[in-house]
Amino acid sequence: MHPQVNAYIESLENPQRQIAEALRYLILNNIPQVEERYSFKIPFYHYYGMFCYLNAIPGGVELGLCRGKDLVLAFPQLEMGKRVMVAGVKLYDTRDISRLDIVPLLLGAAAWQEEAFKARKTFLRQGSRK
Question: What tens digit of pLDDT does each residue of 100-114 get?
């Protein structure tokens, strides 16, 4: 476990801390060879590239998926907002983990992340940035 991620999670108040701890556990124990890092001042998880992150939001935690745009049809609990590539799910209670089917979401996202990496699918098409 990454020491800066430890410090980030420990700095949170409940229920954010409980949610972040539970999500961290699920990510580390369900995704083989996932690597925990601390980037952009939040916990990031790398699995065949940037995979997901945890970000404290008012009253909860967002689990963001870096390739989430490709998953919103299969996992309607994901929200993109105004983002181009990332989609996330907001949790306000540890019970949201089962209510929002977070384990199947993580497993599906990890399978897609690996497949996209092996097929060399880029995050954004060339010239799509303005």
Answer: 999 999 999 999 999
Domains and CATH numbers, the chain: 3-118 (3.90.1150.200)
Question: Residue 105 corresponds to which tokens in the numbers above?
Answer: 């979401």
Residue spans of the chain under pLDDT 50: 125-130
- Token couple for 38: 């601390």
Does residue 43 have a cis bond before it (omega within 30 degrees)? no
